[in-house]
Each structure stands twice: as structure tokens, then as C-alpha cells.
């Protein structure tokens, strides 16, 4: 393969703390150890995926806002940023609390 093909070319990579889709962050996931320490881009939010199989798949900023943002019971679909190729076409779905941008949600999570 010559280079990675973006899965969603409409995802604009950014560092804006007020937006979720396209946000750059680092991953620290035990479930996905191959992502640990890598920079990733948020592609979608799987709302309440840790609570129910009937979760919502949110791919726009408006949908994320309407669902009250990212919560501790969410998974977040992410694509790693490859050093030479840019955003990978391969995605994974770590828990939101395993991403640096949403780590603060872990403090409010009841175990």
C-alpha cells in the first residue's frame, strides 16, 4: 500500500477543545495496546456503547452536542495519525476515558 486512504475525508483534523469530531488526542488503552501513546483523531462517538448494544453512532458535531457530548459510558471511534501518511483508514473504538481529551470523565464514573 502506497499511503493510507482517509476513512472519512470530511473529518477535519483539529485541536479545538470545544469540538469532538476531528479532534486530535492521545490514546492510553489497555483494550487497544497498539494505540497506547499514539496520537489519534476522533471519527465518531458511540454513545452509551458501554451500557447497551443499541448505542447511537454519532458522526457530526451537531449530533454529539444533541446527545450532551461525550460521556463516561461512551466509546470513541478513532483513527491513528501515521507519521508519513496522515490519518489512517483503520479505526478502533477505545473507551472515551482511555483518551487524553476525555480522561476527566473517569473521575465521575461509578465502578
Largest pleated sheet: 5 strands, antiparallel
State the helical fraction: under 10%
Taken from the alpha-carbon principal axes, the silhouette is globular
Order of helices and strands: EEEHEE
Distance between the termini: 43 Å
pLDDT below 50 for ≥5 consecutive residues: which ranges? 1-6
What percentage of the residues does DSSP assign to strands (E)?
Answer: 15-25%
Helix vs. strand class: mainly beta
| C-alpha Rg (nearest Å) | 13 Å
The overall average pLDDT, rounded, is 87
E-strand count: 5
Counting DSSP H or I runs of 4 or more residues, the number of helices is: 1
Count of individual domains: 1
How is this structure best described in words?
- With 111 residues, this protein is mainly beta.
- The protein has one domain.
- The protein has one helix at 61-66, and strands at 24-26, 39-47, 56-58, 75-82, 86-87.
- The radius of gyration is 13 Å and the shape is globular.
Keywords:
disordered N terminus; five-stranded antiparallel β-sheet; single chain; mainly beta; 111 residues
